[in-house]
Amino acid sequence: GLGYLKHPSGFLQPYGHGVSAQLKAGPSVQSPFAKPGGGGSSSGDSTAPSVSDMTPNGTTEGASINFSATVTDPSGVKSVTLLVRKGNSREQSFATSRSGDTYSASLNGFSDGSWSWRIKATDRARNTGYSSAVGFTVNTSTSGGGGGSGGGTATVTNAGWQGGGVVQNAAGRIYFEMPSNSGWAGYVCSGTVAQDGVTGRSTIITAAHCVYDDVNKVFARNVLFIPNQDATSGTGTDRDCDNDPKGCWVPNFGAVDINWTTRKWPDNIPWDYAYYVVADSGKHSGTAVNSDALDVAVTAMAVNFAAAPVLGDYTHALGYSYSDDPNFMYCAQGVSTEGSDNWWLNDCDLSGGSSGGPWVQPMDSGTGNGPIVSVNSWGYTTRSGMAGPKLFGTSASCVFSAATSASLSTSGGVVVTCP
To answer: In 3D, which of 162, 74, 122 has the Cα closest to residue 322?
Structure first.
């Protein structure tokens, strides 16, 4: 009962609503992870998933614990995250595995004392809710135990970023407008302030489909970059820069590879990287910061154009999924490949709006910093997984150089032809 505009690439764009197309049968298609702006659900389901049968609950446990809960929803459950804390300490988030309606996670390394846990669940209609917290006691002297605290190499499918650090402020929400059936419409993506080695400007790395519309052949307009939107005092994405911890910046222009502009999705997937450039003065608004220069107000992150990520090594992908607006989300696991053009995180469940967010390998857990090796690009419509374009051995560095040297008076954007 919902209408969609079918693009030449086969991508189905919602028409008059915000519900992504769900294929009932047939092959999965590649869908970019930008997301139309605006809130609410058009599916008729406005209720968050139901959570029951939480275990442990009021019991005494050892250092190793298996958590489980039953989670159901009429629209289908999209993601379930386990949130655990000791006493009044900060909650830690962990991914869960699924068997039918039961979601579980086995963790170890618990210390003696009083603990509590709860469930965060999101359904396919973008409704998110939290269960009530339930308590349990840990006594390792009677139940044995030892080991880590959930691990630095466990697969995380979709959880709120709790690590803080450099990436917390360097990454942010990108709001922009692209053509739609009724004119221009608001969309959201993610991006990260990148070390560029030049003065007078700052450079944001993101996905090309967050910068240039390959169907209508135009650059995005009315672009805002909102660092650390996770800490907003607002309820979600908006254009009020006064409710964001560092305010907002308005980019001067974007830069993309010519192959992105002359081809259409999915034929231009290998070039789904791009940059926004922001002048150091006159582009900041909202909450006061120590400098109007974006890469002074936040610490920029290095981009690794010189080497490919190490296959199998633990990799973090982060971004602002619209389904979890305004929270900063991440997935993490060993990286693999998807075809010859993309890196791949097989179990990642970040969703629309996370496009352009950074892939970091390795991530320093103490500083929340590390080299960017790719950006969130696309996933299949019928299963988990996130693809990222290759920055090493491609034109990504060439386009970056063009962005850092083009005139700040450039209107719209720069289409770069690389050797």
So the answer is: 122
